[in-house]
Amino acid sequence: MNVCLLRPPSPELLNDRIDPPIGLLYLGTSLKEHGYHVEILDFAGGENPEIPADADIYGFTLFTTSYTNTLEIRDRIRDMSEAPIIVGGPHAQALPVATSKDFDYVFIGESEHTLPLLIEPMVKGSLEERIIEAKAPLNLDELAFNDYSLVDLGSYNRVVSGEIAVSILSGRGCPWKCKYCYTAALEIKVRMRSPEHVMGELYKLDEEYGIDAIRFIDDNFLMNKTFLRGITPMLKNLGKPYRVYGRAQDLTEEIVDLLADSGCVMIGCGIESGSQKMHELMNTKKYVEKMKEGVRLASKAGIKIRAGLIVGFPGETWETVRESVDELKEMDIDSYNLFNFIPLPGTDPFIHPEKYGITWLSENWKDYYMLQGENEAAYAFEHVDLDKETLAEMRQYMISELDKVFLPSLKDVEFK
Q1: Counting runs of H as helices and runs of E as strands, what totals does the chain give?
Q2: Per the domain annotation, does 379 fall within a domain?
Q3: Cα–Cα distance between 81 and 287 in angstroms, integer?
């Protein structure tokens, strides 16, 4: 039985072919283990692969901003096939009922275990339930290493420390409940792969394709200290530069030393704001002074810090914006990305806009990107005290002030 998995394009991104579709690779690998013939089609980067007409089932990974593009590809499939079309991913999980109006089946959650068992009844039309809640794998070490032969690995261009990098996931889940983040709505247990399992995949990748650098795509590589203490000596032995994401206030002297000694060259930190008031409103459980110290320690150890910043969360004022800029200027940040707050589907501000004083939400999913091109942002909502014009002025003020101190982009470093 033939399964065709598809990633739609995200043309709003500066480069949407920077990493392979890791989620589809996990699903495709699991399906292959169950005896299915799998093909992954990646439309990222302006690619337009030929869609096979003989697939028994088609499956999309669905993001909010790519919804329209997904519908266009769905219609191309429908012109030549009546096979079931299924979707999963963040948007499908956030709005399963609405999404089910446009697709045959909607999967909620991590589907490596569930999807292979339901392919046959979906193809036969005997599965009555159209919204399926998948059973997430609790022990990630039980999952096979991703089969990268399903994609053209050489066509992706993530760069770390000047070298083409492979992206890998070492854990899933997040213990925090930040109000701007969709993962706050999830109730899936935080799980880490064992250091041995992660390194087994990296050594296999190095043997088959050659690895020059690594990017760990976990939202927070630092969330499990036991894991970190176990994997860093192994990464040191591998001898490849790598990049991670983590919370700045978790950067103690011990953690920074482990990272620096094992080859970590950059940490992407969600600083969000230099205003403590905004952190309280966003429920980040982060503290500006602790983040300053963590960034200082990393910088002292020679690790670059790239800050992710947010402007415009409900409650933002000119006072918080100016406070944020003043505090950020005192941090040892190397570069930043400034995102406008977007009430993403699945977040509390999207579900309960009235609680946050939100008076308008865009009905165009293409407006829900957080950052487009070099440094363009979306305006997907209006607030009783913050209209689009004022938010644009706040954003421009932050950029003009921060550009005096930091690099606004690492384009030359990130892309080739």
Answers
A1: 14, 17
A2: yes
A3: 54
Residue 217 to residue 168: CA distance in whole angstroms: 6
Domain presence at residue 113: yes
Residues 164 and 229 reside in one and the same domain = yes
Compute the distance between CA of residue 288 and CA of residue 39 in angstroms, rounded to an integer.
46
Bridge partner list, 102: none
60, 48, 59: which is closest to 11 by C-alpha? Answer: 48
For 58, other C-beta atoms within 10 Å of its C-beta total 26
Residues 56 and 122 in one domain: yes
Average pLDDT, consecutive stretches of 10 residues, N- to C-terminus, the chain (416 residues): 96 83 97 98 94 98 94 98 96 95 96 97 96 94 96 93 94 91 68 97 96 94 95 98 97 98 97 98 97 97 96 97 97 92 94 96 90 74 92 95 75 40
Radius of gyration of the chain (CA): 21
Residue 181, domain CATH: 3.80.30.20
Give the C-alpha separation, 193 to 196, whole Å.
8
Would you call 386 helix, strand, or coil by DSSP? strand
CA-based end-to-end distance of the chain: 38
227 and 86 both lie in a single domain: no
- DSSP-derived letter for residue 51 is P
Domain count, the chain: 2
Residue type present at position 288? V
What are the angstrom distances between the C-alpha of 333 and each of 222, 243, 296, 372? 18, 15, 8, 22
Q: Do 124 and 222 reside in the same domain of the chain?
A: no
* 176 assigned to some structural domain: yes
AA identity, residue 126: S
Q: Which amino acid is at 88?
A: G
In a domain, 11, yes or no: yes
Residue length of the chain:
416
State which of 116, 133, 150 marks the end of a domain. 133
Q: Which domain holds residue 104?
A: 2-133
CA-to-CA distance for 50 and 44, rounded, in angstroms?
13
The CATH number covering residue 125 comes to 3.40.50.280
Shared domain for 174 and 91, answered yes or no, is no
Distance CA 380, CA 357 (A): 14
- The C-alpha angle with vertex 76 and arms to 26 and 41, in degrees rounded to 5, equals 25
Q: How far is CA 113 from the centre of its chain?
A: 22
